[in-house]
User: What shape does this take?
Amino acid sequence: MAKAQFDREEIIDKAIDLFWSRGFSGASMQLVVAVTGLKPGSLYYSFGNKEALFKQALERYAQKGLSRIRKTLESAPSVGEGICRHLDQFVEEAGHNDFKSCFLVKTQLELAGEGNELYAHAVRKLAEIESLFQTFLEREYDAELSCSRAASIMLHSFGLRVYGYQRLPEERMRLALRQGLPWLPWDQHDMQKKE
Amino acid sequence: MAKAQFDREEIIDKAIDLFWSRGFSGASMQLVVAVTGLKPGSLYYSFGNKEALFKQALERYAQKGLSRIRKTLESAPSVGEGICRHLDQFVEEAGHNDFKSCFLVKTQLELAGEGNELYAHAVRKLAEIESLFQTFLEREYDAELSCSRAASIMLHSFGLRVYGYQRLPEERMRLALRQGLPWLPWDQHDMQKKE
DNA sequence: TAATATTTTGAATGATTGTTCAAGTTCTGG
DNA sequence: CCAGAACTTGAACAATCATTCAAAATATTA
Assistant: This one.
């Protein structure tokens, strides 16, 4: 049984990059061929078809994102500060000139309707992220408050992912975050950053 | 000089529907032909090409949206209540089962990068909406506060447009709005709704 | 109504789409 | 070192893509 001659995860990472920036319809398989260096036959042999490859890309992207958030929250001195750090990362990323929003959000918006499976997958992953926040919040607040605050965080995260596309000064976004999430310990967070 | 035999705005409205739900890449010109009932030749004769038609659809959608917001804000007893009503409309729309998010937001996310003109157009229109909010807010707050609150409203609007795709109970969204925009007169708004 | 300007038609264009497959290559277990 | 399984190759497929255009139809002006 001969083994594949390429690194599967490396290929999927390249697919993530492509699908993330151009979307499902906007990224042709010929582009995938060009970007990965694999021939069409190998691609289909190893990954099935476009939809299956896209799904694997989504899956890996979501997994990376989830574990990154979990790490940020766990390594912070408090849940509140962890969330501050996480949102600050968003703002910073939005400042980069190759800002690509969020793969899950883009997929959700592009493929909604007609019972698309990829859309459902993206929605599921985003819901997982929300419940991750909720779980952490419940360490400090009751269930009800945790629920509405987790929802508020998601609202702001989505907003940032869209808002960031407008190349606004990061300061504007930071101000808006402090406006909308006044219960977070921004002062402690800002002080720690200066040190 | 013979006049066109169709209603231009009617055609553009149909194009808006199609492009809005399927995006630029996802909506083929053959679909536009099917939806509008015009033959390819007529379409190209009257509207130029796909990009030009899309742009006209964007333009009309944005114009309608802007004037709707302006009307909502002007007819309300106060700026704050006007904004409450506007956001409430968003939540309500998100509950509809043919929810399509926002055409401008979807376009921005789909076509970003490579200096796309349609992307730039969408961004411009969204910035117009933000400055409309800011103008109204300046009736009650100073320039700086109006700026950051307008930004916060946009953040929430974008968030709602994305969040709404998850078919969550509307109540969850309403709670999150009250969490994130506590300076708005929600109590007055909710009371008026019950009457 | 004749002459002219405008609009409609729809088959056809060449490019690009996602995908296939028979033939060839490479690897592995015995 | 050989047999057979696993993988690669890349030309080719039918379908669909955005767009064109000469000819026909229709409206307007004179």
